[in-house]
Design a protein that fits this description.
Elements: H1 3-12, E1 20-23, H2 30-41, E2 49-53, E3 55-56, E4 61-62, H3 74-82, E5 93-100, E6 103-110, E7 124-125, E8 137-138, E9 145-147, E10 150-152, H4 160-170, H5 177-185, E11 191-193, E12 200-203, E13 209-220, E14 233-242, E15 245-255, E16 260-263, E17 266-270, E18 273-282, H6 286-294, E19 312-314, H7 317-330, H8 336-342, H9 344-348, E20 353-355, E21 358-360, H10 362-385
Parallel strand pairs: 1-2, 18-19
Antiparallel strand pairs: 2-6, 3-4, 5-6, 7-8, 9-10, 11-12, 12-13, 13-14, 14-15, 15-16, 17-18, 20-21
Length: about 375
């Protein structure tokens, strides 16, 4: 689900909750801003949290932030957050702007990590607010928590069970192992890999989590291989390990004379056309997150050739289903002859393979890829209008 839909859903609830908060205006007091970020970083929902600015929570009207004098860009926001003295890590934040009812609404995204609890080792209080006597002070060593729709730790002791939960999260004691893996896979910059020279990859801060290639690459075939400069595919089993235990089994695919490494893609047949297939990555799945790791966050599936959309990329299942509807409606926009002419060089390299009795070919890859490109352009145009 994209950020616009997430915020619309939270707004429609007409309340605040354990991982979201509404603000009418940007912060005049940097201490209050930091306090809210710390609380959201220490939320008990184990998920990304949102501070949504430009919405009045007493009337549930959208005011926007277009003319807010205290509005900050991401660079300044990051400086305010990062230049304080923390026990270990600073909260990881992002700032994005969406449009609601014709207004700009800023959303501070506080990312979910395993570095909880977040707290300062040096007291902080902003000296710049007009009324400095009411400025919020953040005490050293005190752990502030987002508890339901309020801040815990201000004028009270943070409940012990909250602290137990945050430290348990830090050490991975209260999370199922696959959930912990999914959090670590959301940190592509913290994985070390060199598939051309090594058979493994690992998380720098939690090396007990690693990916292990099993055996040598074996030559195979997948129609998407026809869209690489050297149309050959190799694959090998890939296990994700926790210490010595296999917790997930998949494959690593290599294209273009083993120049481009990708995780195994998922296949989907087209509604009403069971002889037509496409391969895709969904970014909220394990393979989708692995794609972000393998490509250093770029999601670039190309090698020496351009990106032909031979693998489709979706943010989540809703986005994929939206594409399936579009694909069903626009499947006849291009004839097979038009596609065959446009992609004749790739199709000429194809060696068809039998997939459970169905033939999956480079022609299918090309046709779906062409329609996917149209759908992406349309989606981007709609997003700009919003």
């Amino acid at each position: 689900m994209n950020l616009h839909d997430i915020v619309k859903g939270l707004f429609s609830s007409k309340r605040e909750g354990g991982y979201w908060d509404f603000k009418k205006d940007w912060y005049d007091d940097k201490g209050e801003l930091l306090l809210d970020v710390l609380c959201m970083a220490n939320n008990l929902e184990d998920r990304d949290a949102y501070i949504i600015i430009g919405v009045e929570d007493s009337t549930w009207s959208i005011k926007g932030v277009e003319s807010d004098p205290n509005r900050l860009p991401l660079r300044n926001l990051s400086q305010i957050i990062s230049n304080k003295k923390y026990a270990a890590y600073a909260p990881e934040v992002d700032l994005q702007t969406i449009y609601l009812d014709g207004h700009e609404v800023d959303v501070i995204i506080v990312h979910n990590t395993l570095h909880t609890p977040y707290y300062l080792t040096e007291r902080f209080k902003d000296r710049k607010p007009a009324d400095s006597h009411t400025a919020k002070a953040i005490e050293a060593g005190k752990i502030y928590v987002r508890l339901n729709d309020r801040k815990a730790g201000i004028g009270e002791i943070t409940p012990y069970w909250c602290l137990e939960h945050l430290w348990g999260k830090h050490f991975g004691l209260n999370q199922p192992i696959l959930k912990r893996l999914n959090v670590l896979l959301d940190e592509p910059q913290k994985w070390v890999f060199d598939w051309g020279n090594k058979d493994y990859a690992y998380h720098t801060e939690h090396p007990e989590f690693r990916m292990q290639k099993i055996g040598d690459f074996k030559q195979g075939w997948w129609p998407t291989a026809a869209f690489y400069a050297h149309p050959v595919m190799h694959l090998a089993q890939l296990n994700i390990m926790y210490h010595s235990t296999i917790i997930y089994e998949t494959e690593i695919w290599a294209f273009d004379e083993i120049r481009k490494y990708l995780p195994k893609a998922t296949n989907n047949c087209i509604n009403g056309k069971p002889d037509y297939w496409y391969s895709y990555y969904q970014m909220d799945t394990i393979e989708g997150k692995m794609l972000a790791i393998f490509t250093d966050g770029s999601m670039d599936i190309s090698s020496r050739e351009p990106n032909y959309n031979q693998f489709l990329i979706f943010g989540d299942e809703k986005e994929r289903k939206d594409f399936d509807l579009y694909l069903d409606e626009h499947f006849e926009d291009y004839t097979d002859d038009q596609i065959a002419d446009k992609y004749k060089y790739q199709i000429a390299e194809d060696t068809t393979t039998n997939c459970g009795g169905l033939v999956y070919s480079a022609l299918m890859v090309a046709k779906v890829a062409k329609i996917y490109g149209d759908w992406k352009q349309r989606s981007q145009s709609i997003e700009k209008i919003k």
